[in-house]
Each structure stands twice: as structure tokens, then as C-alpha cells.
Write a structure and sequence with these properties.
Layout lengths: L10 E14 L2 E13 L4 E9 L2 H14 L2 E2 L11 E5 L2 E7 L6 E2 L2 H10 L4 E7 L3 H14 L3 H8 L3 H5 L1
Parallel strand pairs: 7-8
Antiparallel strand pairs: 1-2, 2-3, 3-4, 5-6, 6-8
Length: 165
């Protein structure tokens, strides 16, 4: 997690809660898995999967993992700097920048991640599998591929004005 992000600023949302069963000699043993997103609304977001025998424990574990796996989102005027496609399993997620006033156009899980990251205008599309775990992993993969204009300019040895055209 970024050191400048304090624990008080973080907000979390449970994206998906799943009950799983293990069949044993005496019957079924139930457990829960919770997919949790954590963000500060200022460009930092993380996702974690917690598993436990009780729901509150699974959510707590998911939140802890999400806080440890936070990444920075390069924001530009409330949107993302460029179009990107993230992959996870059979799921693909496309993130596309949008103009002011568009809002977050996304499905439930991706919407939660985008809002917690502080993205105000974005268009998303889930392609292929819509399994919540793969969808969110693909979203985080896409966010990890985002590069700010300054970073692209520095890598190419050009100025920001040359990159913007």
C-alpha cells in the first residue's frame, strides 16, 4: 500500500459474497468467500479475496488483503488517460476514457472499483466471462496497464506536448 494513504481515508465495498460447500462424511461443511474492494477515492484502489467459515471473518480477511494489494490509478480530469483492455481467465474488461458528465458506465463490480479509485467518468465493457472474480481481476489488470501522459513522455524521451499532439 502507498505510504501516503492513511487507514481513515479508505472506504471498502463487498463486491461478491459466495457460499461454498465441502462434502465430508458427516454432511456438508459450509464456508464463505468475500471479494472486497478498498479505495480512497483519490487514485488508489485494491482488491482482496477473503475466505473463512463465517461471513464477517471472510470480509475482514478480504479487506486486509485489498489494503495490502493497493495500486495507484493515474487520473486525468476525473477519467483514465487512455483506453486499455485487461485479461483474467476467460474474462476481459475494456476501460475507455469518457468526457466530463458521462459518469461511471459499468457493471456492479467494476463500478465499485472505479468509484473507489476516484474515477468519475469512464466507459467499461465486460467481454467474455462475467464471473465476478475474473471480472475484477481483469479490471485490476487493466488499471495496472494504465500510464500517465507524463510517464509515457518520459519513457519516449519526449515532452508532454509532443505526446498530446
Amino acid at each position: 500500500m502507498n505510504k501516503q494513504v492513511s487507514e481513515q481515508d479508505l472506504e471498502d465495498k463487498v463486491i461478491h459474497l459466495n457460499r461454498v460447500a465441502k462434502v465430508v462424511k458427516g454432511g456438508r461443511r459450509f464456508a464463505f468467500s468475500a471479494l472486497v474492494a478498498v479505495g480512497d477515492g483519490k487514485g488508489n484502489v485494491g482488491v482482496g479475496l477473503g475466505k473463512a467459515r463465517e461471513v464477517p471473518d471472510a470480509i475482514r480477511k478480504g479487506t486486509e488483503r485489498a489494503r495490502r494489494n493497493m495500486i495507484a490509478v493515474p487520473l486525468e480530469d476525473g477519467t483514465i488517460p487512455h483506453e486499455v483492455l485487461g485479461h483474467a481467465g476467460a474474462g476481459r474488461v475494456m476501460l475507455r476514457p469518457a468526457g466530463a458528465g458521462t459518469g461511471v458506465i459499468a457493471g456492479s463490480g467494476i463500478r465499485a472499483v472505479m468509484e473507489l479509485a476516484g474515477v468519475q467518468n469512464v466507459i467499461t465493457k465486460c467481454i467474455g466471462s462475467n464471473n465476478p472474480n475474473n471480472m475484477i481481476r481483469a479490471t485490476m489488470d487493466a488499471i495496472g496497464q494504465l500510464r500517465s501522459v507524463e510517464e509515457v513522455a518520459r519513457r519516449r524521451g519526449k515532452t508532454v506536448e509532443e505526446i498530446r499532439g
